[in-house]
Amino acid sequence: MSPQDENPPAPASGNSASSRRAARENSEQDERRVQEATETADGELPPPAAEATAPVPEPETDPESDPQERSLLYRVMTGSALVAFLSVVLSLILGGILIAVTDPEVARASSYFFTRPLDTLSAAWSAASNAYVALFQGSVINVRGTSFTSVIYPLTQTLTVATPLICAGLGVALAFRAGLFNIGAQGQILIGATFAAWVGFTLHLPAGVHLLLVVLAGMVGGAVWAGLVGVLKARTGAHEVILTIMFNYIATNLVLYFLSTPAFQRPGSTNPISPQLDSTAVYPLLLGSAFRLHWGFVVAVVATVFVWWLLNRSTVGFELRAVGANASAARTAGISVSRGYILAMAIAGALAGLAGVAQVSGTEQVLTSGVAASFGFDAITVALLGRSSPWGTFAAGVLFGAFRAGGVTMQASTGTSIDIVLVVQSLIVLFIAAPPLVRALFRLPVPGAESTGKRGKKNKGTPTRTPASTGAAA
Amino acid sequence: MKLELIGITKRFGTFVANDHIDLVVEPGQVHSLLGENGAGKSTLMNVLYGLYDPTEGEIRVDDERVSFKGPGEAMAAGIGMVHQHFMLVPVFTVAENVALGNETTRGAGLLNLSRTRERIREISDQYGFAVDPDAVVEDLPVGVQQRVEIIKALVRDAEVLILDEPTAVLTPKETDELLGIMGQLTKDGKSIVFISHKLREVKAVSHVITVIRRGKVVATADPSASTTELASLMVGRSVSLSLDKAPAVPGEVSFRVRDLVVQAANGQRVVDGLSFDVADGEILAVAGVQGNGQTELTEAILGLQDHVSGSITLGGTELVGRSVKEIISAGVGFVPEDRSVEGLVGTFSVAENLVLNRYDAAPFARGLSMSPAAVAQNADEKIAEFDVRTQSASSPAGTLSGGNQQKVVMARELSRPLKLFIASQPTRGVDVGSIEFLHRRIIAERDGGTPVVIVSTELDEVLELADRIAVLYRGRLMGIMPGTVSRDVLGLMMAGMSADEALAQVHDVQGGNL
Fold first, then answer.
1. Domain shared by B290 and B218, yes or no
2. Which residue in the set A29, A37, A315 is minimally distant from B368, CB to CB?
């Protein structure tokens, strides 16, 4: 993901350098050729309409012309919104089939499938639909609720669960926009939670100040943890994927270690569980005591706005995006790529740290080794589904929050295993990672597609290519 | 073998890349296809080579209609293609490369390379290629690698050879050798489709010239036509190939390079002890074959290279050891040699690319906050001033044609007060119409009193722009010549001859007519 770190090729072996350059030129030329042909060669502008209507067969995203901009991962992470939506739909359909297949009723009915096939089908339908209705009722509105509170309770649950997902997802998304694949949200959440929790139960400060310190501590914890990865990458060229995965292990075990020391244990106890956070250190409830939704959600909304501003309206975001989209061009324009990496990771870590705060100051209010659940890993999926855009990530976070919140209700009321939610989530990732599959299933046109059926077919490296899936960063 | 393309039309959606193109390639002919980038030459050749299905029209070989489902079938029919980018495996020997995809085996899947070696020697002797079948390809000069490509086609009994921009990567000497080889091949009855936009070469070697513009055959020209005539046909309007520029009025010498050494990561000196000066209001062109240290030289000036020693001063300020940002703020404008990799962020909008190195300065940003309005206004101005053809300022820069991308880069670099302007390959891959424009802008910058350094591998460009010409060979300076020096002398210097030797040799050959 970071071929930009290599030095320009040595000239004496000139051949490979120049032939590579020629290759670039060649593919460039090929990419250009039709577009250029839409311009008139005689120096006059063609009628604007003609130019606008002439579809350019070569899509702008050419996987060969610029490997780092056009890496598969990049395309996956910034794929089109429609594909993301359809991936969710497809996954739900497949999940429904899975629910039906594993349902005991359906299994019973299928034993006499050939005498009364409709029984099997209706059992399958009701299994899947009941499960999904339960999922919906557990995550959005409980239509059978007797009071307003009980009707909207599921929605608030969804938002509560979504809070850490959104925060950590933003971290993953932001790092990705800077060209870094941050697998380390899990570790960053844990360290952020640890910092926040320690401040929360060790210091005893007045309300307001205390919470503020807790939030800051969580952000600092995550930022330091992720910033280390950024520094290592910038200084030594180590790959951030490996680093963040390893840092996750370190974080997990570090937290376990902390929880085995008296400083993090309850007085007189050796259980790996911290004292309760002070009441001044927890997020106030947002909608009163009937709901678990806390101010952490507001923080998540603010974080989303902030990340949007940072990426789209600030000079820092301009730098980060430039580094992520084309590090060579960024460097040539005087942007420090190392600084970009470190900064992106630190901010990403701070966001993941907020997720940790949402856990220890919001829902859990104690520090345990399981405080991060699997939010850090789900956050990757969330960012992926959100196409690495702040509001996309926000929406995806809410969706995944709904899955989690609704999954519990689903299991309780229909007996469908909550694991089905995991399957659906995994399917979503699978489909998003394979946009051509989704397009083929829904017969969507390939962006920049053209009529010939032959391009890219065993082309022996000739300058034809399969049209790449397009999609500029949102 | 006679090859005919009859009424070939290739549409992409509603866009017509090739519009009823007729082409007859007679045996023993060099048939040149002349056209600007994007005129449809490559599409046509891809149709011929079986990579595209023609929408309409047919291909005939010896008056028999054929259709190719892929390059394999085209090759079997006797059509060979030498791509601009060589399709060779660098770590394989010549014989292995030639055998690749066409291996002869002796039972049990064992390679029989000796047969291939034999064939290579035969062909090599027949045409005087001087290619050793056992040489490893990556050790061979580019010109020889190209011959390996030609051998690959000949071993497969190609009767028609398509050469796609074959001279782009060659030194002037290698180019001459290639043109010689083409002559021999045609004498032997082979035919060659020669794709190029270099008029001189096309004129030198062709029997027939077909000019393609916007997907249509606009003319069939005779090689005796003048270059101006050919260029006009190609572009569709009269072009002045020679730029009227006033003689330089060099001012003070403000840009100095002394004993500059740039080392690659492996310790090799890729720029080896360069010293030169550029005066205000003067263009110094750096000539040389690709990969002789030009890239590293320009990158060292901008602070992009790590292992730099020596001194680079601009207006008395030392630039070595400074960050890129400081050097840019010191007034250095830089057009990198590969705009799509170093010059532009393809997914960024044209507007964003126009402020790529000024995004954090007023009026584009106040503090940390950028002003989209200022960025957009700047974009509108520059797009109008440089005639950038884009659907809108917010289109991704990657969707623009090469010439327009280059205009974006140039617009960005030339739109602030400069103390030094460096441009690498300022017109590579740019259509003829834009070349003229870009050259004028460079000259205007010179006339404004800025020292200008141009790096180009195109001799035409070097000769057109330069007030003085520095020739680089393997990182060393072969000499600095006046802008009026002859092409032959430059060619020899680019191949590693010192200025004196080159002058003497040309003098000998031409009897003193420089």
1. no
2. A315
pLDDT at A76: 60
Mark which of B235, B270, B301 sits at the end of a domain: B235
Per-residue pLDDT of B98-157, as tens digits, reads 888 777 777 777 778 888 898 899 988 888 888 889 999 988 888 888 889 999 988 888
| Minimum distance, in Å, between the CA of residue B508 and any CA atom of chain A | 31
Which residues lie below 8 Å from residue A218, measured CB to CB, with a gap of 6+? A192, A193, A195, A196, A353, A354, A356, A357, A360, A361
Q: How many CA atoms lie within 13 A of A344 on its CB side?
A: 32
Domain that holds residue B289: 253-331+417-510
Tokens representing residue A269 in the block? 């106890």
Residue B391 in any domain: the answer is no
CATH code of the domain containing B294? 3.40.50.300
B257 and B153 assigned to the same domain: no
Residues 171-210 of B with CB under 8 A from A: none
CA–CA separation, B318 vs B323, rounded Å? Answer: 12
Residue B118 within a domain: yes
A452 contacts in chain B (CB < 8 Å): 12, 52-53
Task: Looking at the complex, report in whole angstroms how far the Cα of residue B410 sits from the nearest Cα belonging to chain A.
Answer: 13
Which of B488, B396, B508, B40 shows the shortest CA–CA distance to A473? Answer: B396
Contacts of B369 in chain A (CB under 8 A): 313-315
Assess if residue B362 is contained within a domain: no
The SS3 call for residue A104 is: helix
pLDDT by residue for chain A (474 residues), tens only, comes to 444 444 444 444 444 444 444 444 444 444 433 343 333 333 333 333 333 333 333 333 333 333 344 456 665 666 677 888 888 899 999 999 998 888 888 888 888 888 888 888 888 998 899 999 999 988 988 888 888 888 889 999 999 999 999 999 999 999 999 999 999 999 999 999 999 999 999 999 998 999 999 999 999 999 999 999 999 999 999 999 999 999 999 999 999 999 999 999 998 888 899 999 999 999 999 988 889 999 999 999 999 999 999 999 999 999 999 999 999 999 999 999 999 999 999 999 999 999 999 999 999 999 999 999 899 999 999 999 898 999 999 999 999 999 999 998 888 888 888 888 888 888 988 888 887 788 788 777 665 443 333 333 333 333 333 333 333 333
Q: Which of A52, A334, A458 sits opposite B324 (nearest CB)?
A: A334
**Same-domain check for residues B257 and B310:** yes
Nearest-CA residue of chain B relative to A32?
B401
Q: Are residues B503 and B431 in the same domain?
A: yes
Instruction: Please give the residue of chain A at the shortest CA–CA distance from B334.
Output: A332
Inter-chain CB proximity A41 and B433 less than 8 Å: yes
Domain count, chain B: 2
Q: Smallest Cα–Cα separation from A382: which of A90, A166, A136?
A: A166
Whether B464 contacts B285, CB under 8 Å:
no
Answer yes or no: do B227 and B257 share one domain: no
Is A194 in contact with A367 (CB distance < 8 Å)?
Answer: yes
Both B222 and B291 in a single domain? no
Cα–Cα dist B134/B116, whole Å: 11
Q: Which residue of B has its CA nearest to A45?
A: B389
DSSP B339: I
* DSSP secondary structure letter of residue B280: T
ipTM here: 0.74
Same domain, B205 and B66: yes
Residues B143 and B269 in one domain: no
**Of B235, B265, B297, which one is at a domain's C-terminal end?**
B235
Distance (Å) from the alpha carbon of A459 to chain B's nearest alpha carbon: 7
Domain parsing of chain A, residue ranges? 75-139+416-442, 163-414
Report if residue B112 sits inside a domain.
yes
Task: Determine the CATH number of domain A163-414.
Answer: 1.10.3470
**What span, in angstroms and rounded, lies between the C-alpha atoms of B53 and A32?**
20
Contact B13 A55 (CB under 8 A): yes
Under 8 Å CB pairs connecting chains A and B tally to 295
